[in-house]
Amino acid sequence: MFSTILLIASVLTLMFWIEYLVFAQVTVRKLEKNHKLKNELGAELLSGWRIFNVARALAMPTKIFRILQSGPLGVLQANSKLIQEHTNQLDRVLAFILFWHMYLLAVLFIGLMIANLGFGVGD
Asked: What is the dihedral of CA 9, 13, 19, 24, to 10 degrees?
C-alpha cells in the first residue's frame, strides 16, 4: 500500500514540475517582459521562487493574501493587484492548478513521512 501511494505521489510530482514549467513560460515570462511589473513579482530568495510568488498571488483567496502582504514579510510577496490586472483567465487557472497542486503534494509527502517514521508502514 505504501509503495502504491509513493508511486502516485511520484507521478503527481512529475506532473507538478511540468505544470511549473508551463506556468513559468506562459505567465511569468509575459509578466517579466512588462517593465512596470518586473520589480513587483516578489523577492526571489532562490532561483525560480518568483514563479511561486506569482502563482500564490493569483491563486490564493484575496483576503488571505492581503493579510500576508500586510504582515512583517509582506515585502517578499508579489503585488497581487498589479499581477491580476495584467493576466488573463488562462493565467489564473494555471496559477490555481500549480499552487494547490504544490500544497497537495506537500501534505501527501508529509503524510507519507509520518506514516513511514511513526508507524513503520513503509518497512
From this structure: 150
